[in-house]
Structure formats: structure tokens, C-alpha cells
């Protein structure tokens, strides 16, 4: 008989005989004990081999499912970035005092810093006239009511059962409950949580008092109805100190409005500054290379955002700001901006052409052309306190794989850049007559243009503050 162990070694790899042949050969061997042992070993070995194959298959399948799930998540999940008042700009003191993120002293220290700030003199009215974003459309489902506090007002914003958005004063004229806190939408009305009086979303009139047995509903049982509209992913409220002034028409972005472009994400910030300071950034062209020139990879902290290692790449900006022409709507100003990323001060890439439309005091549409196609960022700035602004950007672009990567990177980079501004805004003074040089002249033009949003009767900064102090 041939040496079966030698054959076994060769045959194990299946070079010259199949497994079946080996097993058959061994079964007819004269040395029964050895044959049985070998047969056993072979069967165990084969079992082991199939186990290994099965484990491999399961491993690959799990990895594949994981990769597909992560790609799907990455492709379809919007990128969200959120910072509140305590997140940006206070680390120079918090670090010195050894106060960490979860330290109880954190909020107290930041509030102390906010109180110590000399905010400036002759501060303009904090709530200029215009359309303001009060909620994002997706934040209000059919039949849902929310309370929104901004512009020195308390609103109840609700979506009727047919999908219409209505904005009313939040406080019930009966005994003062807030309809945004526990109010229930019924048809196109909202029912107060306290005694179930109902108010129509169409005009704010009370339509039902469930326990009234006699008489009729008083005419004065009425809530103020605010003009509102829904466009480009936001719910806007018209806020004007003079009720007789008709609102201007909202500028629609068709690609967003009709759903051709995809929503890629958003960021949200609470900024400690006067509203006028935020869009002034567009006309302040000199700050662009100072604040936004250093590489975005080096982060947003102005104390550390210019490290030597990041100098291999810098952002280059070229900007101009334009007041509207005579034939243009007076409430829309424009900024043209060109961005590129310069590698070793020579090689330019990632060029972006931006046309930004500043629409009224608190809304900007940034239409961008990038190497990967068009995109838009929609910004709302809404005063929630005289010197606290809620700023939201929402980003849209056509759906494709390149965009899924690029958009998320762009939202991150924009968030970093915005935080650099925020660190300045959170601590700056408002200067009514700034010391401007010739090269700063666009700031002057901007302030002149912006002044149209204040009326003689606009609530002053001092009064607005008093209204909130109680
Ligand atoms: S307080 Fe609203 S029904 Fe009484
Ligand atoms: Fe800026």
C-alpha cells in the first residue's frame, strides 16, 4: 500500500485526488485501526474547513451589511451642527478658572461675563421690521402647536389639520394660559389647555366656549393673528411696528420649494449680539481674510486658529457688497463673493462663486456655484432677546454621491467659519459711529441701507430690555 500519510499531505490541498477519493481509498485499506483514525481525522478536518468557510461567509456578509448601512446613513442623513450661547467664545475665562463642560459653575460664569460686557451706546432698536424665520417647516407637523418666543413676542404657531400654518398671540384672553403649551389643534382652530376655549387660526376669533350655556361668545374674545407664510423650508412671521404696512413678497428658491434639490443639513447658533451686526459681516470685506483666511482645519477658536502647521493652505476671499439699484426692491441688498483654497500660496482649488441676497433685516439666500455644481444656503437671523440672535443655515443641492460628501464637508467648514465670527460677536460692542477708513466704506453703505428697517415707533433697546426684566 502507498504511504497514505504522505498522500494525505499532498492530497490535502486537493492536488491529485479529491477528498471523496481519499476517504474511499482509506476505507478499503488493510490496516483497519490506522485507516479508521485517518478517516476520522479527515472527516474532522473537512468539518473544520466547512466551519471556517461558513464563518468567513457570515463575516463578509456582516461587513457588507455594515458598509451598506453606513453608506446609506451617510448618504441620506442630514448633517446637523448646533451651538448654544455657552459653547463659543468663553473658553478664555473657563480654561483659566478650570471650569469644564459639565461643571455647575459654567453657566454662572458665562452669565457673569455677559453682565460685565459693556454692550455699547445708542444701540438701534432690537427688532427691525421685516419677515423673520420662526420655525423650520419640518419642525411643525400637521396638527401640531408650538410656542415660539422671539421679537419681544410670545407666539403660538400651529399647523391646522389641513396643513395650513397659523401664528397667533400665545396668551388666551380668558385667563392668560399660553396656547403653545398644551394647546390642541382641532381642524383649523386651537383649543386652550386651561378651559378649552377654541380660537380660529384664520382670524384669531374665539369660536367655542364649551361650558357656555347662555349668550354669545364676546367679540373681544380674540387673539392677534400674525401674518405668516411658509417658503424655502421656513415658517416666517411678518413683524412690523406699523400694522398698516403691507409685507413684501418673499423671494422663492424654486429648486428648494419644488423639491428638486435635496436638504443636506443645517446648523444652528445662539449669538450674543445685535441683529444688525450679523449681516454687516457681508459688507465688512476686510474681516474676511483676517477671520476666515486661516485654514478651516485649524478650528474656530480665535486664540489658536493660526497654527504654523495649517499654513500650507489658506482661504482666499474676494468680496463686494451692493445696495439695491433704483429699479430693484429696496429691501434686497447683494453681496458677490469668490472663495478659493490656496495650497502653498499657489495652487487654487475648491473655488466657489457666491451671490448672497440679504432680504430684509434677518434673511439671507446664498446661491453658490462650486466645482461640484450648484448649492444654496438659506440663513435666518431672528432676535430671541434684544442681544441674542438665533441663526440657522439650511443647505440644499442636487442629489448625487459627490454632493453627499461635499455638502457635509461644506456644512462643517461653514460652521467652523461662522463660529469664528461668533467669538467676535459674543464679545463685541455695538459702535454707533465706528472709526472707518476708506476701505471700510461698504460698512457705511450697509448701515444706511439697513436703517430702512427701523421706524420711528420701533421698540427701543432700553424698552425691549425692560419688557423682559421682571
Ligand atoms: S385661559 Fe384659556 S380657556 Fe381659560
Ligand atoms: Fe464672517
UniProtKB/TrEMBL annotation:
Which superkingdom is the protein from? Eukaryota
The pathway noted for it is: Steroid hormone biosynthesis; dafachronic acid biosynthesis; Hormone biosynthesis
Cellular compartments annotated: Membrane
* Required co-factors: Fe cation
Report the residue ranges that make up the Rieske domain in this protein: 131-237
Task: Please indicate if the UniProt record lists Lyase as a keyword.
Answer: no
Q: Which reaction(s) does its UniProt entry say it catalyses? A: cholesterol + NADH + O2 + H(+) = 7-dehydrocholesterol + NAD(+) + 2 H2O; cholesterol + NADPH + O2 + H(+) = 7-dehydrocholesterol + NADP(+) + 2 H2O
Keyword tags = 2Fe-2S, Iron, Iron-sulfur, Membrane, Metal-binding, Oxidoreductase, Transmembrane, Transmembrane helix
Q: Where are the transmembrane segments?
A: 47-72
**The UniProt record lists the keyword Transmembrane helix:** yes
- EC numbers: 1.14.19.21
> Which protein family is named in the record?
Belongs to the cholesterol 7-desaturase family.
Against PANTHER family, the record matches this protein to: CHOLESTEROL 7-DESATURASE NVD, IRON-SULFUR DOMAIN CONTAINING PROTEIN
* Name of protein: cholesterol 7-desaturase
Q: Which organism was this protein described from? A: Aedes albopictus
Amino acid at each position: 500500500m502507498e504511504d497514505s500519510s504522505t498522500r494525505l499531505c499532498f492530497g490535502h490541498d486537493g492536488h491529485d485526488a479529491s477528498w471523496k477519493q481519499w476517504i474511499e481509498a482509506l476505507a478499503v485499506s488493510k490496516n483497519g485501526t490506522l485507516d479508521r483514525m485517518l478517516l476520522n481525522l479527515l472527516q474532522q478536518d473537512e468539518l473544520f474547513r466547512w466551519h471556517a468557510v461558513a464563518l468567513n461567509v457570515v463575516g463578509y456578509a456582516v461587513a457588507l451589511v455594515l458598509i451598506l448601512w453606513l453608506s446609506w446613513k451617510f448618504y441620506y442623513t442630514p448633517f446637523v451642527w448646533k451651538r448654544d450661547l455657552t459653547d463659543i467664545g468663553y473658553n478664555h475665562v473657563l480654561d483659566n478658572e478650570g471650569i469644564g463642560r459639565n461643571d455647575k459653575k459654567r453657566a454662572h460664569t458665562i452669565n457673569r461675563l455677559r453682565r460685565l460686557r459693556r454692550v455699547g451706546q445708542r444701540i438701534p432698536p432690537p427688532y427691525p421690521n421685516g419677515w423673520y424665520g420662526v420655525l423650520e417647516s419640518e419642525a411643525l407637523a400637521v396638527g401640531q402647536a408650538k410656542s415660539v418666543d422671539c421679537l419681544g413676542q410670545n407666539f403660538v404657531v400651529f399647523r391646522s389639520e389641513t396643513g395650513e400654518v397659523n401664528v397667533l398671540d400665545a396668551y388666551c384672553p380668558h385667563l392668560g394660559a399660553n396656547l403653545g403649551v398644551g394647546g390642541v389643534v382641532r381642524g383649523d382652530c386651537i383649543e386652550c389647555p386651561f378651559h378649552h376655549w377654541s380660537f380660529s387660526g384664520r382670524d384669531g376669533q374665539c369660536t367655542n366656549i364649551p361650558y357656555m350655556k347662555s349668550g354669545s361668545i364676546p367679540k373681544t374674545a380674540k387673539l392677534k393673528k400674525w401674518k405668516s407664510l411658509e417658503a424655502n423650508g421656513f415658517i416666517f412671521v411678518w413683524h412690523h411696528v406699523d400694522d398698516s404696512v403691507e409685507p413684501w413678497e418673499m423671494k422663492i428658491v424654486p429648486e428648494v420649494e419644488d423639491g428638486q434639490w435635496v436638504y443636506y443639513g443645517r446648523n444652528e447658533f445662539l449669538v450674543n449680539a445685535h441683529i444688525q451686526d450679523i449681516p454687516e459681516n457681508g459688507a465688512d470685506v476686510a474681516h474676511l481674510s483676517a477671520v476666515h483666511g486661516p485654514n478651516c482645519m485649524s478650528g474656530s477658536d480665535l486664540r489658536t486658529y493660526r497654527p504654523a502647521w495649517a499654513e500650507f493652505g489658506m482661504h482666499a476671499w474676494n468680496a463686494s457688497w451692493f445696495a439695491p439699484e433704483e429699479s430693484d426692491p429696496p429691501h434686497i441688498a447683494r453681496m458677490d463673493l469668490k472663495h478659493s483654497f490656496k495650497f502653498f500660496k499657489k495652487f487654487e482649488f475648491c473655488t466657489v462663486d457666491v451671490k448672497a441676497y440679504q432680504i430684509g433685516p434677518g434673511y439671507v439666500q446664498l446661491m453658490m456655484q462650486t466645482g461640484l455644481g450648484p448649492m444654496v444656503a438659506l440663513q435666518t437671523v431672528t432676535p430671541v432677546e434684544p442681544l441674542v440672535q438665533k441663526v440657522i443655515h439650511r443647505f440644499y443641492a442636487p442629489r448625487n454621491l459627490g454632493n453627499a460628501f461635499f455638502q457635509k464637508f461644506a456644512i462643517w467648514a461653514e460652521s467652523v467659519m461662522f463660529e469664528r465670527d461668533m467669538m467676535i460677536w459674543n464679545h463685541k460692542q455695538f459702535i454707533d459711529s465706528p472709526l472707518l477708513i476708506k476701505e471700510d466704506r461698504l460698512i457705511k453703505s450697509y448701515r444706511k441701507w439697513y436703517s430702512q428697517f427701523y421706524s420711528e415707533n420701533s421698540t427701543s433697546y432700553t424698552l425691549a430690555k425692560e419688557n423682559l426684566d421682571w
